[in-house]
Amino acid sequence: MGEACAVIGVGQTHYRSRRNDVSIAGLVREAALRALEDAGLTFKDIDAVVVGKAPDLFEGVMMPEAYLADALGARGKPMMRVHTAGSVGGSTALVAAGLVQGGVHDRVLVVAWEKQSESNATWALSTHPPLTPSLVVGAGGYFAPHIRAYMRRTGCPDHIGTLVAVKDRQNALKNPYAHLRIEGISREMVEATPMLWEPIRYLETCPSSDGAAAMVLASESAARQAPNPPAWVHGAAMRSEPIFFAGRDTVNPQAGKDCAADVYSQAGITDPRRDLDCAEVYVPFSWYEPMWLENLGFCGDGEGWKLTESGATALDGDIPWNASGGVLSSNPIGASGLIRFAEAAQQVRGLAGDHQVDGARRALGHAYGGGAQFYAMWVVGSARP
Amino acid sequence: MSSDIAVVAFAQTHHTGEDSGLSEVELLAPVITDVKEQTGLTRFGFTCSGSLDYLAGAPFSFVSALDAVGAWPPISESHVEMDAAWALYEAWVRLRHGDIDTALVYGFGKSSQVRRADGESGLPELMTLQLDPYYLAPLGLDQVSMAALQARAYLELGHKEDDLRAVAARSRAAGRANPYALDLPDPGDDDYEIAPLRPHDCAPVTDGAAVIVLATGDKARELCERPAWIRGADHRIEAHSLGARDLARSESAALAGEKAGVRDVEVAELHAQFSHEELILREALGLGDDVRVNPSGGPLAANPVMATGLIRVGEAAGWIHRGEAGRTLAHASYGPCLQSNLVCMMEA
Amino acid sequence: MPRSNSLTADHSLAFPGGYTRSVGPVIGRFLTELRDGRLVGVRTAAGGVLFPPVEYDADGEPVTEEFVEVGPDCTVGTYAWVPRPRPDHPLDRPFAWALITPDGADTAMLHVLDLGVFDLGAKPPKTLRAGLRVRPKWRAERTGTIGDIECFRPGVTAINAPVRADYRLSAGQALSRFLGGIAEGRILGHRCGVCGKVYVPMKGMCPVDGVPTTEEVEVPGTGTVTTFAVNNIPDPRAPEVPFVSAYVLLDGADIAMVALVAGIPAGEVRMGMRVRAVWRPREEWGQTMANIRWFEPVDEPDVPFDEIKDYL
C-alpha cells in the first residue's frame, strides 16, 4: 500500500438533471473549490490533479481535461485523466491516492464529473456502431437479465428491489446535494411506476444527472496540517475481468469478490458486516443492493435479499448502505464512483450531516462499471492505519 | 516503497499507414503475446492501458481490448484516456507502492478509421474535439493549423523552414531503416499543408499498438539482462489557450525534464508530431547536437495515436536493453501544441 | 339569437398618417437613449429608479432630473404565454408578454419575451418563469420608439455544439469471418485450444486464456434462453412493445449471445425455453447479424434450471 494517505477535503456540486446555470468548467470548479475550502487550501497548494469521467461522448469534448487545466489550477502541474467506465470515479480516486501512496506527491486534487444533459445518456453509453456480432442493448436491457437470474437463483420475493428504491430515496431526503428528493417516497409510489426493463421499474433505476465531486488527498504530514478530521485510506484495490467469456458468473462476478477480498485483507477486515460501520456501494438499479451484499461478503450466497428485507442496510440498521441516497438518487456517471468514495470518507470524518451514521469509524467505498466487470474499492477509517 | 523500476520488455506492431483489416484487439493480441514470451510471464501485478474512444468511434474502446490480455482470473487493471505513456506513468507509480513487482502497459490506436465523408483523413479535425468547447472548438479549426501557429511562432525566433525540413528528412530516413515504422520518401517539394508546415512536417496517419512490461528490483534483473531503470518520470501541463502561453517554447516540457532529472542524455525519443515540435522540445530539454534524437524515425515516421508516446519509452529503453547506450530519455505529449509533456529518464 | 336581416358593412377608424405625440422631456430622454441602444430610468425623490421613466412617481410626486442607465440585464416578473399569436402581435410564433425589470431599476415595463421557435399552440416552455434573466434584442434601425427593442430574450445559457466524427470502421478478421458466415446462413464460432470452450461469435482469441483461437466450429440456429429482459421502451428493431431481449445459448456453444425473442407473448418467455433462429428471407441477407430477425420458441420441453445455471 505504500505511504499513508488521507482524505482531507471533500466537495460536491448539487446534482440535478440539468445544471444549466454553469459551464463545464464552472461545474468542476464548484466541486473543486468546496474540496479545497474543506482542506483549508487553495489551488496553489496542490501538487497534481487527477480527473475522471465516463465516455467523452456525453459532452462531445474529447479528453476535456486539457481544456480544464486552467480551470482546475493545474498549470505547471501533472494532470491525468482516468476512464474505466462506470467505475471511473472510484478508479480516479485510487489513481490519485496512488500518487500519495507511491510517495510522489503530498497533496493531490481529484475531480470526477459528468454533464450528461449536454447530450443523452442512452446515446452516449451505447452508440450503435455498424458491424456488431450481437444485439446491442442499453444499460437497463443489459442488467435486467442478470437481475432476473439473481431472483431465480435465490428464490427471493419480487418486492426487494422496491424496498431498496424507497430506502435510498428516503436517505436522499437527508442529503442536500442529492438529485432525486422525493417527499413521501413509499413502496406504493415505486410500485405504481412502470416496468422499463422487467424486472426493473422506473423508480428502481438511477437518474441521469449533471454534477461533479472532488477530494483533496494528502500524505501523512500534509494531513496533520488539515483543519478538519482526515479519513485515512486503509485499503485500495481494483479488479477487472472480460465482459463475455464462457462460464462467467455475471450475477456474482469473480472480479468483485476478488477486489473485496483484496481491500479487506489490506484493511484487516474479516467480517465486513461487523467490521465496517457503513458502506457506499454503486447501486444503479435497486436490485444490485442484495446482489452486491453477497458479492462483497456482507452475507452468504443467496442471503443478500434477506439482509435488505430485514432493514439491516437502512440508515438505522446495523450496516447502513448508501446513507447518502446512493447512485439511485444522484448519478452523474463519471462522478458517481467518486461520490461513493467521498461519502464513505465523510462518514468516518463525522461530516456527513443529516445522513451521518452515528459513530462511523470505518466505511467502504465501492464502484463498478462496464458489464459489471470493472471494480474499484477502498476502505477508509477515522484512525490512521 | 520501491523505487527501482525498469522497462524489461517492449513490443510493437509493424505499423501501417492504412487499415490492415485487423481490429484494435487483433492488433494488440500478438504484441501482448510477444512480451509474455519475452518475459515468460502470463500474469502481471498491475495492468494499465491508454486508448481513445473517439479514435474507435465508440464508447468504452478499452473493454474489448481486455480480451487480448487474458484477464482471467480477474486482474488489477486501470485505463487512462490518454497516450499510453501516461498509463506507463500510472503503472510506475503503482509499482512504487512496493506490494507488486510487475506491470503490463499497452496502448493502441487506428487513426486510419477516422475518415471524413470525402474520404480524406479526419484526424486533424478529430483532434480539435479536445479544444475549449466554447471559444475554440466551434471555430472549425484543425490540428495542423494549430501546430502551424506554433511553428510560425518558433520560426519568428529566427529559425528557417529548412530547419524543419531537415528534421523531417532525418526522421523519414531513420523510419525507412526501422522495420516497424512507415516507408516514407525523402521530403519533396510539396506545397504547404498549412503554412509554414508542409506535409512532411506532419506525422502520418498510422495504425498500431505497443506493449511494455515494467518490473521492480530483482524481478527486473531476473526478466531482463539489461533492464532500463527508470531514474525519473514526471509530466506537466500548461495553459490550454494558445494565447496564454509562449508558443515558441515549451515551459511544461522544460519543467517535466527538470523534475525527471534530465542529464547526460545519449539518445532521446521525442513525441514530436510536427517537425518544429522536435526543435522546441530539444531546447526545452536542453538536448545538444551530440544527442541522437528519434533514431527510430519518431512520430514523423509512425504515429499510432495513443501508442506513439509509449513507443518512445520502448524505443529509448531498447538502446539500454541492447547495451548500446547508458542513459536515454523518452518524451510523450498530449493536448494542442504540446500542452502537456511527460519525460522519462532511463539508465542502464 | 343571430339576426340575419340586419345589413352589415366593414369599417375602420384610423387617423390618416397616425397621430403625432409630443413626449416631453422625460419620455423623450428615454426614447432618445433607447434609439442609441441604452436603457435609462429616472431617479425618484425617494431615491428609487423608475423605469420606464415618467415625470412622476407612484405617489404622484415629481421625479428628479437624474437619469440612470439600467440593464441591459433584466429580470422577468409576471408573464403571459401566447401559444397562438393574434395578427397584431409582434411575432407570428408563440412568445410571451412579460413585465421586465432592468438591473438597477425598481419598476418594470411590459414588453415582448422571445424564447425561441415553438410550434403554434405550444405549451409554455419550462424555461419561462419569474426570475428569468433576459436582455433586450435591439433593432438594427432604431427610430426612438419602444419597438426599438424588438423583444427581450434570455441570456445565453447554452450553445448548440454539433460534434461529428466520421469513420470507416474495420471489423477485423474474426468478426469479418463470423459475419461472412452469417451472410451464408451459417453460425460460426471458435473452439479454444486451451480450455476447449466454444465461442460464438468467435473473437479470434480466448478472453480467459489470452491465446489466439483458430479451430472453426459451426453451430445450429437452435438454443436455450438462459435469462432475459422484458423491455417496455420502444426499439425499432423489435416487433412490438413489450419485447424480449434474451441471452440465447446456442446448442454447442459455451457462451450465450444477446438476441431478440419473438413469436410468443413477452409474459410467456421463460428461462430454459428452447428457441430457434428466424432468418430473414435470403434475398435480404447481408454481412450483418440482422439476417437473423430474432429467435422464436420451438415445441420442445424447457431445459431444467440446473442445466443452464452455469451460463448466467
Helices and strands in order, then pairings?
The complex is a heterotrimer of chains A (385), B (348) and C (312).
Chain A: E1 5-12, H1 24-39, E2 48-52, H2 65-68, E3 79-82, H3 88-101, E4 107-115, H4 121-125, H5 139-154, H6 160-172, H7 187-191, E5 195-198, E6 200-201, E7 210-219, H8 220-224, E8 231-240, H9 254-267, H10 272-275, E9 278-280, H11 288-295, H12 304-310, H13 326-329, H14 333-349, E10 362-369, E11 374-381
Helix pairs in contact in A: 3-14, 11-12
Chain B: E1 5-12, H1 24-39, E2 46-50, H2 53-56, H3 61-65, E3 77-80, H4 84-96, E4 102-110, H5 123-126, H6 143-155, H7 161-176, E5 207-216, H8 217-223, E6 228-237, H9 251-260, E7 267-269, H10 275-285, E8 292-293, H11 308-321, E9 327-334, E10 340-347
Parallel strand pairs in B: 2-3, 2-4, 7-8, 7-9
Antiparallel strand pairs in B: 1-5, 1-6, 4-5, 6-10, 9-10
Helix pairs in contact in B: 4-11, 7-10, 9-10
Chain C: H1 24-35, E1 39-43, E2 49-50, E3 67-70, E4 74-82, E5 95-102, E6 109-113, E7 133-138, E8 149-154, H2 173-183, E9 187-191, E10 198-199, E11 205-206, E12 211-212, E13 215-219, E14 222-231, E15 243-250, E16 257-261, E17 274-279, E18 292-297, H3 305-308
Antiparallel strand pairs in C: 1-2, 1-3, 4-5, 4-7, 5-6, 7-8, 9-10, 9-13, 11-12, 14-15, 14-17, 15-16, 17-18
Total helical segments of chain C? 3
Classify the oligomer. Answer: heterotrimer
Distance between the termini of chain C: 76 Å
Second rung of CATH, namely the architecture of the largest domain in chain B? 3-Layer(aba) Sandwich
CATH names the topology of the largest domain in chain B as Peroxisomal Thiolase, Chain A, domain 1
| Dominant shape of chain C | elongated
Number of strands of chain C: 18
| Arithmetic mean pLDDT of chain B | 95
Q: Runs of chain B with pLDDT <50, length 5+? A: none
| Helix and strand pattern of chain C | HEEEEEEEEHEEEEEEEEEEH
The portion of residues forming beta strands of chain B comes to: 15-25%
Quick one: CATH class of the largest domain in chain B?
A: Alpha Beta
Low-confidence stretches of chain C: none
| Structural class assignment of chain C | mainly beta
The shape of chain B is globular
Q: Give the averaged pLDDT of chain C, no decimals.
A: 91
Biggest pleated sheet of chain C = 5 strands, antiparallel
- Helix- and strand-based class of chain B? alpha/beta
Number of domains of chain B: 2
The CATH superfamily of the largest domain in chain B is identified as Thiolase/Chalcone synthase
